[in-house]
Design goal:
The chain is an alpha+beta fold. Helices cover about 35% and strands about 15% of the residues. The relative contact order is 0.15. This is Knr4/Smi1-like domain-containing protein.
Length: about 170
């Protein structure tokens, strides 16, 4: 998606203002006010899943985040997160066709139900996805950095963000 298209498609979003300021070089903070508990609960009801603690905690601090100069440059506000398959049917189908064993490769086989928390990239096919159907830690779920080449696994959203904080997403 990129920052400019995000600002144009969602002009009333507080994150659009952050994107516009990032594009003009007048940005001092890349976040926006946090999401309310009710907004998070509403998203969970809409998606039919419980969001992981580390991601809920992030949303309470900043309901979306701009990352200028990164490959993935927008973490979506809670109102815009959605199942990955909703807008990426072609990617889902290609990945599903590559699966040899749906039990072993369950995430790839069920990629459509992963929760997309990053904006559609301006270039490439990189996304941050939450696998709310698989967890290796209490109150968390697996997080993945999806790219056309690979799908990297992390024990949680917090683990992914901590590791990638110094690396261009």
């Amino acid at each position: 998606m990129g920052m400019q298209p995000f600002a144009e498609w969602y002009p009333d979003s507080p994150l659009a203002d952050v994107a516009r300021r990032a594009l003009t070089g007048t940005l001092d903070w890349c976040g926006v006010p946090g999401a309310s508990e009710q907004a998070i609960v509403d998203a969970e009801k809409r998606l039919g899943v419980r969001l992981p603690k580390s991601y809920r905690d992030f949303l309470k601090v900043s309901n979306g985040f701009a990352m200028p100069g990164r490959f993935i440059d927008i973490l979506l506000p809670v109102e815009l997160i959605r199942p990955f398959g909703q807008d990426n049917e072609e990617i889902v189908q290609i990945r599903r066709e590559l699966v040899v064993d749906p039990v072993v490769e369950a995430f790839e086989y069920h990629l459509d139900r992963a929760i997309q928390v990053s904006g559609t990239p301006q270039m490439g096919d990189d996304f941050i996805l939450l696998d709310t159907h698989h967890s290796t830690a209490l109150n968390e779920c697996d997080a993945h950095l999806y790219s056309r080449v690979d799908i990297d696994w992390y024990a949680s959203f917090a683990h992914l963000m901590a590791e990638k904080a110094t690396f261009n997403l």
